[in-house]
Amino acid sequence: MKKVTLLTVLSLALLANLGLATIAQAEVANTTKTEKNHVIFEANTDEKPIIDPVDPSNPNPPDPIDPTDPDNHGTGNTGALTIDYAPNIEFGTKKLASGDQKYTALNENPFVQVTDLRGTGVGWKLTANISKFANADGSKELKGAVLSFKNGVVKTRPNNVSGAPVASDVSFDTQETYSILIAEKDNGKGSWVDVFSGEKDNNSNVELLVLEGSADVGVNYTATINWSLADTPTP
Question: Which of 36, 133, 176, 184 has its CB 3.0 to 4.6 Å from that of 142, i.e. a possible disulfide?
């Protein structure tokens, strides 16, 4: 806040007349006036902008936000509580190898973004589950494959005064639902990202475990993550 200081200079005039000095004194006015300064807010249900996951203070995030996922421009969701962005993870083409193998993601800064502009402070919970890694018709499957997200960092814009949601590492070893972010009461207001940054083309914070003997050559294995956002921290 810019503070403005006003200095009032009081002057004393001495008037001489036939050797007699007269002091001119200003009359002091003692008045006050109170004004009502008013603001009220409503929930914002518009589509929300995407935060730069590397530097949330950047007002002009790169486009595309993830070069490994160039066609992903966000979910386009509208409402006062939204999932604004969810990543598509790319592992590329790998050679078959003996033994169980862990493959790292090509994405350098995959992230998920949630915005809460309800203005109620009741909190929220982000969860996710995953389908099986399989080909298009489901006839081929990576049995026992596990997708892991770890060492996520929760970020928001620099001047957000809300408390942060709490993030959890997750290993999708079944099709069960797992907690990703939990915002307790009065936390998680505004926009938040959970980013799993790592080395470009070799991000060890996002890994896929493939069991020996599960993969066939030339098959495009794909899994879908279903993200879900509840309007309280304990749905």
Answer: 133
